[in-house]
Amino acid sequence: PGAEPAGICLACSYECHGTHRLFELYTKRNFRCDCGNSKFKNLQCKLLPEKGKVNSGNKYNDNFYGLYCTCKRPYPDPEDEIPDEMIQCIVCEDWFHGRHLGAVPPESGDFHEMVCQACMKHCHFLWAYAPQLAVPPLTKANSLEDERIVLKVEESEEQKKEIKKESGVEHHDTKEEKQLEQFNEPSTSSGSACPEVVTKNEEPVCKLKELQSKPFVKKDTATFWPSNWRSKLCTCEDCLKMYSELEVQFLTDECDTVLAYENKGTSDQETERRDPLMDTLNSMNRVQQVELICEYNDLKTELTDYLRRFADEGTVVKREDIQHFFEEFQSRKRRRTNRMQYYCS
């Protein structure tokens, strides 16, 4: 109580903070572990003692006090009896109750990322993308509200055309329709940059300006996005400058997603589980592989025979015994090598 907020990595939580009360915050981008710096008195990090006194690039919010969402409540909340899912905003990285987002979230499998209400106001340009890219929230039917039945309401293309005709807007520009179809095509790129759109004179076209020229509605709600939406954001010079000014450059980086982060962790674990002997063998040519296997089998046979004598006599194997074995083994190996004859082909 009364101390500055601090964040520590998972490894330090096990090694250095076993007796401390901790709040698990999941992922925080561009964050450095505070363990052992000036925020902790009389505590040195056991894993990396040489650390800077302050991590000036770290950002701290209410999560570091164990409070979440716009309601500023802990999780789990002993006073909250309503079952609700917590969803993390990809911009501010705070966690929100589904009922405090200004809209009913779609089914969990229908969207991959969420941008909260406050961050949609900050990243106002996303509203121009929302009609084409965002996953629509669920809509409660008024007649069924009392029964708490939630329906997903989607307008058909015919209904949309009728609505536009009634409002005096005719939708007959086939060129615009083709551009929109191209914009909505699934992304095939695994990189962070969206495909460059060019005109006949090879000048890049700003996707955002094209979308902003069409009518769209800004709402006071969170938005929900599919898996490949980041690759559809414009990466022209003006838009990149805007992302930098808003400090949201990460939005165009598909490796920034939590899914990419988790996949990287899985890949690293698989690498750690690999057999180092097999990796060494795979890096050698055929002759080297045969020589290594023969040497390994010789060592295994001689060490097994050597240790069997101790087992038969019921004596304890000491450190000096192991050192003596390897000294003798190296000596025999040198004698064998010196007797070998080499021939040039």
TrEMBL record:
SUPFAM superfamilies: FYVE/PHD zinc finger. Pfam families: zf-UBR. Residues 155-195 are annotated as: Disordered. Residues 2-49 form the UBR-type domain. It comes from the Eukaryota. Residues 181-192 have a biased composition (Polar residues). E3 ubiquitin-protein ligase which is a component of the N-end rule pathway. Recognizes and binds to proteins bearing specific N-terminal residues that are destabilizing according to the N-end rule, leading to their ubiquitination and subsequent degradation. This is Putative E3 ubiquitin-protein ligase UBR7.
